[in-house]
Design brief:
Blueprint (H helix, E strand, L loop, with lengths): L1 H18 L10 H4 L9 E8 L2 H31 L7 H13 L3 E8 L2 E9 H23 L4 H25 L9 H11 L4 E7 L4 H14 L2 E2 L7 E12 L7 E12 L5 E13 L2 H19 L6
Parallel strand pairs: 4-5, 4-6
Antiparallel strand pairs: 1-3, 2-3, 6-7, 7-8
Helix pairs in contact: 1-3, 3-6, 4-6, 5-6, 6-7, 8-9
Length: 313
């Protein structure tokens, strides 16, 4: 895949230079059309072009990103095929975030200008990036070990998230160095830890007012992924209240409607007091109110997944 990407880059840049008859081809740096000619084994390299220096830099960085992401995704897919019974799909989201952080280390090391066209040469230093990723993995391992000694449900959720981050970081390390960093903590340990600390917590989801039952299903889906179990009566477990208030908004697209939803989640304590979990506003649009609510719920679930780590019944 990298060869294909580089071939496209070379063809495009060569064509651009050929079109500029006043350019002395012998004065054009090799990296403009053949980025690998200036690339060390310890680097990923790519060229970019554009109507300004800024555009050319961005194009070169984007090309590096395509090369690196293709390699990491290939390693990730291979690992998933071997361990698809234990690897969670949410790891894919963690992979995207961690890859972007590594791509921030890409540097523009050379530039060239000819007939108003700008060219940039971008490099990702494998050794430098691997060192940063290794430090992140070591830091993540330390945090997981500490959290495993904590008996709270929130700590179990945090361990799961950190394990996903650690998994994605390791995929990058494999691409950068050719080797993996073994984890002292297995997914089985993470799963058992979550089941022991979260699974024992029985939750009763209570809808307030005329709240749509889709909201209840959405809340349960997110919590179930974390290992929470649910009961049918308030007397059997801890109470999480869910309230949704909606307001129709003006919308200029014919045949479509738009709504604003305020979704509030609270933990109801035995003494009658409440602890705030989430109180946010979400917009949704669709051909009807049901479709608009579905769109709002998708954004809500993203927020709730981030907030759920702080839940501690």
């Amino acid at each position: 895949m990298k060869k294909s990407v580089n071939l496209l880059l070379t063809t495009g840049l060569l064509g651009a230079l050929t079109a500029c008859s006043s350019v002395n081809v012998s004065s054009v740096p090799n990296w403009v059309n053949k980025p690998q000619s200036n690339c060390q084994n310890s680097e990923f390299c790519a060229s970019g072009s554009g109507s300004s220096e800024r555009v050319a830099d961005a194009d070169a960085r984007s090309s590096i990103a395509k090369i690196f992401e293709t390699k990491v995704n290939s390693t990730f897919s291979s690992t998933l095929s071997q361990e698809d019974d234990i690897v969670k799909s949410s790891m894919k989201d963690a992979l995207k975030e961690s890859v972007q952080a590594t791509l921030n280390t890409v540097e523009i090391v050379e530039r060239f200008k000819a007939d108003g066209q700008y060219y940039s040469f971008a490099v990702l230093d494998k050794d430098k990036s691997a060192k940063i990723v290794r430090e992140q993995i070591d830091d993540t391992d330390e945090k997981m070990e500490q959290l495993l000694t904590d008996n709270s449900a929130s700590s179990a959720s945090k361990v799961k998230r950190l394990y996903e981050q650690r998994f994605s970081l390791n995929q990058q390390y494999i691409v950068l160095t050719g080797s993996s960093i073994s984890s002292k903590i297995s997914y089985e340990q993470v799963f058992k830890n979550a089941k022991a600390k979260i699974g024992k917590t029985n939750i009763f989801v209570k809808l307030i007012g005329s709240t749509n039952k889709k909201a209840e299903a959405s809340v349960k889906n997110v919590m179930r992924e974390q290992g929470y179990t649910f009961v049918k009566s308030q007397a059997e477990g801890r109470v999480l209240t869910v309230e949704v208030n909606k307001t129709q908004l003006p919308f200029s697209i014919k045949g479509m409607v738009k709504y604003q939803y305020v979704i509030s989640l609270h933990i109801l304590n035995s003494n009658g007091s409440t602890n705030d979990v989430l109180d946010e506003t979400y917009d949704g649009a669709g051909i009807n109110e049901a479709q608009a609510f579905d769109e709002a719920l998708r954004d809500f679930e993203v927020d709730f997944k981030n907030k759920i780590e702080e839940l501690d019944f």
